[in-house]
Specification:
The protein is mainly β. Helices cover 0% and strands 62% of the residues.
């Protein structure tokens, strides 16, 4: 599990390799990842946008930007959490993802929170993030 905290908002990520959606012969590797966002702060916030940086095992980067997550722009009051699962394909058996969410407070204050850098590894590869 990977974890980042920004402005008392906790983001955890649990990646999971999906062999049933992957094919080494075709150079296709697929992971799901489950993200939990917990508002441990005193103010209500809303997730507005996402910005992902996806790096494959060859060092090629892809950036993905968009509104919300999984079609939603969740509002989190103090102590509330939002959980979702998404997925990512790569042409290599390993890679990394990181990013940021843009949030807005009830007062209209816009700020970004970190998504922790996390590793996407085929079960046969032994890599760690330093």
């Amino acid at each position: 599990m990977y974890r980042a905290v920004t402005r008392q908002i906790v983001v955890t990520v649990q990646p999971n390799f999906m062999p049933e959606r992957s094919s080494a012969e075709k150079g296709q590797y697929f992971w799901s990842y489950t993200i939990v966002i917990v508002n441990a702060g005193p103010e209500t916030v809303q997730l507005k946008t996402r910005h992902w940086i996806i790096t494959d095992g060859s060092g090629r980067q892809q950036e993905v930007r968009g509104e919300g997550v999984v079609g939603e722009q969740p509002v989190l009051g103090p102590g509330e959490r939002f959980e979702y699962t998404s997925g990512v394909p790569l042409p290599t058996p390993s890679g990394f993802m990181t990013g940021r969410y843009q949030m807005v407070s009830e007062a209209g204050d816009r700020f970004e929170i970190d998504i922790p850098l996390f590793s996407l590894d085929h079960p046969d590869t032994n890599r760690t993030i330093n």
